[in-house]
Amino acid sequence: MSPDHALPSTDPTVGCDREPIHIPGSIQPHGHLLAFAGVDLGLMHASAAAEAVLSTSIATAFGQPIERILAGRPTEALRDGLGRLPATGPMQFGRFRTASGAAFQAIGHRSPDGRAVLELEAEAEGDGPGAEATLEALYPGVRDAFARLGRAASVELLATTVAAAVRQITGFDRVLVYRFEPNWDGTVIAEDGNGRLPSYLGLRFPASDIPAQARHLYEVNPQRLIADADYVPVPIRSAQLGPPLDLTFASLRSVSPVHLEYMRNMGTPASMSVSILRGDGRLWGLVSCHHAAPRRVSFAARNACDLVAQMFAVRVAAREEMAQAEARARLKGLEGRLLARMTAVGRLEDGLLAVPQNLLDLTGAAGAAVLTEGGCALAGYTPSEAEVRRIAAWLQERGVGEVFETSFLASLLPGAEALADTASGLLAVSVSRIHPSFVLWFRPEVVRTVSWGGDPRKPAEAAPDRLHPRRSFAVWAETVKQRSLPWGAAEIAAARDLRSAIVGVVLRTAEERAALTGRLEQVNRELAAFSYSVSHDLRAPFRHIVGFAELLREREGEKLSDRGRRYIDTIAQAAETAGRLVDALLNFSQMGRTALVPIEFDPAVLVAEVRQALEPEQADRHIDWRIAPMPAIWADPAMLRQVFQNLLSNAMKYTRDRDPAVIEVGCATGEAEIEFHVRDNGAGFDMAYVHKLFGVFQRLHRAEEFEGVGIGLANVQRIVERHGGRIWAEGRLGEGAVFHFTLPRRGASAAETT
């Protein structure tokens, strides 16, 4: 709701989801905008009414530095502030008063195209909530919101507290907390108002109301104010021809007539929004404010609301993480019992279905099926065996990866409408890469009524001349059928963990894993104590051995024979090797316990950083690096750095005798995963021993030829598999090697998070 659109395209077939809303070419009229470039901060862009704050005309001011053109003092502070702007986000420079006495709030930011942008926002009039106020005056309200958030017992109560706090700070007639659903529909989960505007509490709005590029702007610029829906946009003039100024971070950025018409249809002449962002920067929801008359809110008040929204986001994240941890702990017990039974009986289906309710409870399903080469076993309420086999064949053909989930199977599988009473929802894990073997869980249809803020089937209207927004916000009720309750994150994780246990762990160790579930806290303490003992009780003696050996060589070296000095060298080298071995063991043991923190990033940047870090090892060697373009990935960058660090370091080590050495890094993008490879023309290896490559302390070359402790590739394999990927290698002795590893695409299989 209250979407942000750009200027409408002249092509009526172009929808709002493709409008370039970050470059509207104009601003709102309650302020002025100046953009500068270069070391001298020469004026390059100015809003058309900016002569009100200039000492000369705009045409004369273009190209001139800031201190020569502003009609006010002091400009030195503004110049200094614009010279040290951060890469993203605004900086407040305080009050700027022109020679005529007009007062503005000066706000600066660095635009994505490199301009230093100064916004002079006219101070709000009046003394009510949201008018010009200092942070000191706003602090009590923020502090009170912090205290009340700490006492809220649910996400809904947290959201209600936020809505009330933001309305108290800003004075808007209605404040909503709007949560995005997985498909980007939005639901109003909390509201605070004075009755001047209708209630939207509990209503759902279609994803088309806030298109993708608008959601992106909400992620990078969390504040948005539109003071008057009837404003006349003020165009931005430029010193020279070129692309329009990027206003991604601008507070005054203008919006499209489509959006302004949307506001008028909604009966809200003024609106403000503050983003609610997850810890990784993704959009969770919005605090959306509306007023029945034009309204301006100070920058300080907007910042206070932003702080309240951030406090809310932290509280929500903490509750979600706690709920996930509790659910995982509960489900781990079930997983352990299932694994123990599989170990005892030896057959997958017999072990999983020895107590069928355990398998159902693992994911909260009403029915389950275990499909293997040997047959198909059913439990609970499921489709017929023939239908289960059809679903499995469809999954195999679709190539869904390791885990597949949907709460709306009828939208994906033809003919699944007839299975609504048993299989509207499907969660499946593949337990074989060769045969169509699956564990499948089913959920029945849950018929429910969803109240929409207007008919979602008609989110926008097209006319030959331009786009029109949705005109009606009257409550529209929809009866939702053929959908199950959605699968929770903990349930999906439990299914994934069960799959990993089945295919990745020798079944004879499953009983130990089940016992480990019940002793998890004790074992964690023992592991921590062991790590401490290794790092302090073993590493320190090794350092002492090396140190005293060096002292002995320095002080008694002349008295020693050549044989004695060789003995000392051997002692020091052995102690250093043992120290490195302890470090490697610690790193390997911690790798399985360190939580993954996946984000979206460019792996090419990471590869470049690793190459730079390895330059000292390159010395004067000539290496022909061939780095192919790579798509953005969803992974833990710190973990993936270790993968590339090991693979590239190995490639450099094993091409030591090649001139030139050729090292290639590339990737291929599939439907469900991205495959990377690191290829070299070095020593290679005999494929007869490829099964040893990723084992701990396994080496295919003598230590005298190539240094190392034989644990790096084991670390690489553990990292890749924790991300849900695969790793393998190919090589020919004397001709080089290539290491392949895959990472699931974000939409195909989420990375492990614990």
TrEMBL record:
<dbReference type="InterPro" id="IPR001294">
    <property type="entry name" value="Phytochrome"/>
</dbReference>
<dbReference type="InterPro" id="IPR003594">
    <property type="entry name" value="HATPase_dom"/>
</dbReference>
<dbReference type="InterPro" id="IPR003661">
    <property type="entry name" value="HisK_dim/P_dom"/>
</dbReference>
<dbReference type="InterPro" id="IPR036890">
    <property type="entry name" value="HATPase_C_sf"/>
</dbReference>
<dbReference type="InterPro" id="IPR016132">
    <property type="entry name" value="Phyto_chromo_attachment"/>
</dbReference>
<feature type="domain" description="Phytochrome chromophore attachment site">
    <location>
        <begin position="154"/>
        <end position="310"/>
    </location>
</feature>
<dbReference type="Pfam" id="PF01590">
    <property type="entry name" value="GAF"/>
</dbReference>
<dbReference type="InterPro" id="IPR050351">
    <property type="entry name" value="BphY/WalK/GraS-like"/>
</dbReference>
<dbReference type="InterPro" id="IPR003018">
    <property type="entry name" value="GAF"/>
</dbReference>
<dbReference type="InterPro" id="IPR013654">
    <property type="entry name" value="PAS_2"/>
</dbReference>
<dbReference type="InterPro" id="IPR036097">
    <property type="entry name" value="HisK_dim/P_sf"/>
</dbReference>
<dbReference type="Pfam" id="PF02518">
    <property type="entry name" value="HATPase_c"/>
</dbReference>
<keyword id="KW-0418">Kinase</keyword>
<dbReference type="InterPro" id="IPR035965">
    <property type="entry name" value="PAS-like_dom_sf"/>
</dbReference>
<keyword id="KW-0675">Receptor</keyword>
<dbReference type="InterPro" id="IPR013515">
    <property type="entry name" value="Phytochrome_cen-reg"/>
</dbReference>
<keyword id="KW-0157">Chromophore</keyword>
<dbReference type="InterPro" id="IPR043150">
    <property type="entry name" value="Phytochrome_PHY_sf"/>
</dbReference>
<dbReference type="InterPro" id="IPR029016">
    <property type="entry name" value="GAF-like_dom_sf"/>
</dbReference>
<dbReference type="Pfam" id="PF00360">
    <property type="entry name" value="PHY"/>
</dbReference>
<protein>
    <recommendedName>
        <fullName>histidine kinase</fullName>
        <ecNumber>2.7.13.3</ecNumber>
    </recommendedName>
</protein>
<dbReference type="InterPro" id="IPR005467">
    <property type="entry name" value="His_kinase_dom"/>
</dbReference>
<feature type="domain" description="Histidine kinase">
    <location>
        <begin position="533"/>
        <end position="747"/>
    </location>
</feature>
<keyword id="KW-0600">Photoreceptor protein</keyword>
<dbReference type="Pfam" id="PF00512">
    <property type="entry name" value="HisKA"/>
</dbReference>
<comment type="similarity">
    <text>In the N-terminal section; belongs to the phytochrome family.</text>
</comment>
<dbReference type="Pfam" id="PF08446">
    <property type="entry name" value="PAS_2"/>
</dbReference>
<keyword id="KW-0808">Transferase</keyword>
<keyword id="KW-0716">Sensory transduction</keyword>
